[in-house]
Here is the input.
Amino acid sequence: MNISIIGGGAWGTTLAQALSDNGNLVLIRDINNDFVNKINNEHLHPFFDLEIPATIKATLSLDEALNFSDVIILCVPTKAMRIVLTDISKIINNKKLFINVSKGIEPNTSKRVSEILDEVIDSKYIEGYVALSGPSHAEELILRKLTALVSASKNEAAAKKVQKLFSNDKYLRVYTTDDVIGVEAGGAIKNAIAIVSGIASGMGLGENARAMLITRGIKEIVSVVVALGGKMETAYGLSGIGDLIVTASSMNSRNFQCGLKIGSGMSIDEAVGSINQSVEGIRAIIASYEIGKKNNIELPIISTAYRLVSGEVNAKEALSLLMSRSLKEERYW
Ligand SMILES: NC(=O)c1ccc[n+]([C@@H]2O[C@H](COP(=O)([O-])OP(=O)(O)OC[C@H]3O[C@@H](n4cnc5c(N)ncnc54)[C@H](O)[C@@H]3O)[C@@H](O)[C@H]2O)c1
Here is the structure.
């Protein structure tokens, strides 16, 4: 089957290889000419310089990508998603199945990708919408290391179609759910706690502290997902806690790395700027804080991280704010 991927960075090109391994023809659209040339002429992954199947092609043309397939994978950073979808809305002329694999919340609006899609693309052109997410470092999947994802759609047939498209019996296993909000929200909000975990490590706090922040952070992720309308069990699944486990202590995670730099004294802008790929977690902290405030949910770690990223307190002051809270009973629900 032909499949188009919009955004051929670390994740988009990695998914292209998995889809190619499963017998599909993939066309990637990226706006970076060097990436397009690298894929077409050298058959190399643009970030990892590893060989990828020669059948994977790339283009600068959005028109060409849309004409190539009726299955469109959206893999640009969330901050670029509205621009990409608006460009698509101007040329789309038949129904497409949209698969979103980005993990983030739109800056300024705090909207999820399914909400942006509904606003921008005429419903007569949407065959279905699937959010595909889970614990997955591109650095590992590109080496065909075993990975599991969740395919979420309100349309069961669409969720199953994507499950079948990506799954293979060698290294990739996909589960399904109907909880789109839970999968989209969990994948985005866990980045907030990954940054906090990185900050703690950067400050030289030990593994005890990191375990505390991650565990107490889980409670906050679940609360935000549920406040947005997602299911608690989804937040506890692969796309929520599963993804937090893989993100919150790994140097392969740019959110963890960004936190590490902030914890060792870099400003937020310096830390984000020093990572030459998208860091979705800063926006996740801001969005989660706003959601908590609106819904009157107690989110001590996220609120403290918010004060830190807004420049109100530094990392040391943030830590003493958390430590000086009144003592509590351990309760998750
Ligand atoms: N890297 C991972 O391991 C991983 C895993 C799962 C999900 N994700 C998510 O996937 C999304 C993308 O991550 P990434 O790691 O590939 O980021 P990246 O920064 O490596 O790549 C983003 C790509 O999007 C391209 N792009 C930007 N604007 C574009 C546009 N208007 N049209 C077409 N291409 C455009 C960029 O040129 C770049 O190639 C993020 O939301 C991330 O959270 C990443």
